[in-house]
Amino acid sequence: MPSAKISPSLLSSDFAQLSSEANRMIKEGADWLHMDVMDGHFVPNLTIGAPVIKALRQHTDAFLDCHLMVSNPEKWVDDFAKAGASLYNFHIEATDKPLELIERIRKSGMKVGIAIKPKTSIDLIYPFADKIDLCLVMTVEPGFGGQKFMHDCMPKVKALRERFPELDIEVDGGLALDTIEEAAKAGANVIVAGTSIFKADNPKEVILTFRNIVNS
Ligand code: DX5
Ligand code: ZN
């Protein structure tokens, strides 16, 4: 399995200090920065869009892992590419033309990810898994930070890992010191965490522990 990448979710940061929060996470050892984009339609919450990614890009060269919890993900590809997003993670539930979307994202120069909600069958991912850089298996219902990790999503991670040993498999939602082992054992190697990193007394230690457990 590919090596660990730890991607703190800036949803749990102080949005008023976004650039210093982002750079603080990189200093604490984060590999990527997870940016949660919500449109108030695909999910019942509203966050940030491409202008914020563009602004943040002026202050960091970090890998920006953008999680698009939006309807019509086709609509924002060019804006995110221009803004400096590194990875465009769209939801499989939000499009009927995943292949076309994958190609468009590739052409724009960003890496391609497909995200999947807890209740959606992993079978929907298989036809595309060799055409993408990453699959994001949600371990909570998307929309909010601070929710409880859903253990019943692990069989999806396991099944995907068995079929695609080299794929980056990302988990998002409720990842913490008491759930990381289960996720890593199932085959996840990209770990998103908001609450457990930002609320920690020592975020560096949490990031390091996540990395060691995934790589062990
Ligand atoms: C939820 C978001 C997550 C969220 C995770 O819809 O996709 O990235 O920030 O937060 P925690 O780690 O607190 O569950
Ligand atoms: Zn997310």
From TrEMBL:
Keywords: Carbohydrate metabolism, Cobalt, Isomerase, Manganese, Metal-binding, Zinc. One of its GO terms (biological process) is carbohydrate metabolic process. Pathway: Carbohydrate degradation; pentose phosphate pathway; D-xylulose 5-phosphate from D-ribulose 5-phosphate (non-oxidative stage): step 1/1. GO terms for molecular function: D-ribulose-phosphate 3-epimerase activity; metal ion binding. It is an enzyme of class 5 (isomerase). The keyword Metal-binding applies. Its EC number is 5.1.3.1. The active site is at D36, D172. Its cofactor is Mn(2+); Co(2+); a divalent metal cation; Zn(2+). A divalent metal cation binds at H34, D36, H67, D172. Binds 1 divalent metal cation per subunit. It catalyses: D-ribulose 5-phosphate = D-xylulose 5-phosphate. InterPro entries: Aldolase_TIM (IPR013785), Ribul_P_3_epim (IPR026019), Ribul_P_3_epim-like (IPR000056), RibuloseP-bd_barrel (IPR011060). The keyword Manganese applies. Substrate binds at S9, H67, G143, F144, G145, G146, G174, G194, T195. Gene3D superfamilies: Aldolase class I. PANTHER family: RIBULOSE-5-PHOSPHATE-3-EPIMERASE. NCBIfam families: PRK05581.1-4, rpe. Belongs to the ribulose-phosphate 3-epimerase family. This is Ribulose-phosphate 3-epimerase. It comes from Diversispora epigaea. The lineage of its organism: Eukaryota, Fungi, Fungi incertae sedis, Mucoromycota, Glomeromycotina.
